[in-house]
Amino acid sequence: MPEAGNARSLVMRSRIIEGAVEVVADDGVAASTAVIAKRVGVAQGSVFHHFETKAGLLDAVFAVLKKELRAAVIADLDDALPLDDKLWLIWRRWTDWGTRNPARRRALLLIGVSEYVSSQTRQESELESVVGVELFQEASRTGVLRQQPIRFVGALVEAVANSTMDMMALEPARADEYRLAGYRAMRNMLG
């Protein structure tokens, strides 16, 4: 029967993480664990049973959302495609995920700039994103950013992507136009 207990524990952890995504998206990272527990319909002690601290919970939320985004963006990426085709596919998938999941994107952004993400989780996230990072690094090898650290290049790409998704959400009728314009701006920036 221990397996049933573990399965229930994993389900509860997932419920708490999903509740935290919603609360952070609505109220920011300053939201209390009591609010998260109430959203999930559990006692606040349950949150701390599964996550020792609020920082541990938000760190887990960040890791889950990064993995989800990475899976949506990099899945089944054909190595035989030319670089520009790979970048366009990644861009399209990324902006699709962000516009279809505004609460998840907002929670990821807010937690990502907070002090709640551990250095270990950030490092693991970077390592797991190596395929996408390498493609953007390859694209920047001949441009003005060629001598810049990949973290800086990545931050610029992410800023353009987020601005693009913001405009796509603001004006859905022009979403395809903004997606293409954002991609072209990103490509021109990279070189």
UniProtKB/TrEMBL annotation:
Stored InterPro entries: DNA-bd_HTH_TetR-type_CS, Homeodomain-like_sf, HTH-type_TetR-like_transc_reg, HTH_TetR
Q: Which residues form the HTH tetR-type domain?
A: 10-69
Q: What residue ranges does this record give for the DNA-binding region?
A: 32-51
Cited SUPFAM superfamilies: Homeodomain-like
MF GO annotations? DNA binding
Keywords for this protein: DNA-binding
Q: Which domain of life is it from?
A: Bacteria
Q: Which BP terms in the Gene Ontology apply to this protein? A: regulation of DNA-templated transcription
Q: Which PROSITE patterns match?
A: HTH_TETR_1, HTH_TETR_2
Protein's name according to its UniProt entry:
HTH tetR-type domain-containing protein
The taxonomic lineage of its organism, from the top, reads:
Bacteria, Bacillati, Actinomycetota, Actinomycetes, Pseudonocardiales
